[in-house]
Each structure stands twice: as C-alpha cells, then as structure tokens.
Amino acid sequence: MRSLPEPPLLLDTHVWIWAMTGAEGDLGQNARSAMTAAARAGRVLVSVISVWEVGMLEAKGRIHFSLEVGEWVRRALAASGTTLAPLTPEVALDSSRLPAPLHGDPADRILIATARRTGATLVTRDAKILEYGEQGMLSVIDAGR
C-alpha cells in the first residue's frame, strides 16, 4: 500500500522571517524538523501576502534586514524547496467566507484561506490561528513546538 504524500507547509509571515534570518531559537524542534523535511521535498509555501507583510513591517521600522527589503524577499523566495503561493481570486473570496468565528486580520484570513485552498498545513505561533486549527478548520503546526 502506498502512503499519501505529505501536504505542503505554508509558513506564516513571522515563521518565514525567523527561518530566513536564522532566528531558529524562536522555532520549536517539531516545527524545525517539519520545515526541513518539507524544504527537502520542495513542499514549502510562502504566500504573496507574506511578501506584502514583510514590506509593511520593514517600511514601518518594525523589522530590519542587512539587505534592501526587495533583495531580502528575492533571496528568501529562492530558498531551496520554497514556492510562492499566489493570491488568487478564489483565495480572496474564501478569506471573506471562512467558517466559524475568526478575528478580522485580513493577512491572517488570506493565509488561512491559502492553506485551506492548497491543502497545506499552516506553520504559525499565532494563538488565534492555532485555536482555529484546534477547532478543525485547518491543519496547523505550532511553530513554538
């Protein structure tokens, strides 16, 4: 009997930043192991909304890189095993119609809709998203574990 392929991992914006800047101390062992295996298999997704969030955080001075932000993004998206998940019309509509109560952060809603649409597991430390996953609304990995 053949086993089913592992689902892709969609990285929440903060997880993507931590992974690309070497801030692995912020990531738990289980999350790091899952991300390493997914990268080897070419199953890491980064949403285009995360690119937007990185740009906004850098523009507001909340994060700083040793590179110009556009160059950082280009290099981070070129990381082995990483694919950019686009913001499609379907994802945009899905994000406005997620089941069950959920906070209104548009970027988080787009990440959740992207994970659901692509069948990905969302890697995050966002407590509200983890709780949403515990309700069975999407597959999540707690990045802190």
List the helices and strands and how they pair.
Blueprint: E1 9-11, H1 13-21, H2 29-40, E2 44-47, H3 48-59, H4 69-77, E3 82-85, H5 89-95, H6 106-118, E4 121-124, H7 127-134, E5 140-142
Overall description:
The protein contains seven helices and five strands; from the N terminus they run βααβααβααβαβ. It has a five-stranded parallel sheet, sandwiched between helices. The chain has 145 residues and is an alpha/beta fold. The protein has one domain: 5'-nuclease (Rossmann fold, 3-Layer(aba) Sandwich). Strand 4, helix 7 and strand 5 form a beta-alpha-beta unit.
CATH class placement = Alpha Beta
Total number of helices: 7
Gross morphology is: globular
Radius of gyration: 15 Å
Identify the strand order in the major beta sheet. Answer: 3-2-1-4-5
- Helix proportion of residues, in percent? 40-55%
As residue ranges, the low-confidence spans are: none
Could you state the CATH homologous superfamily?
5'-nuclease
Which sequence of SSEs, written as H and E, runs from N to C? EHHEHHEHHEHE
Short description:
This protein has seven helices and five strands. It has helices at 13-21, 29-40, 48-59, 69-77, 89-95, 106-118, 127-134; strands at 9-11, 44-47, 82-85, 121-124, 140-142.
Relevant terms:
145 residues, alpha/beta, Rossmann fold, 5-stranded parallel sheet, globular
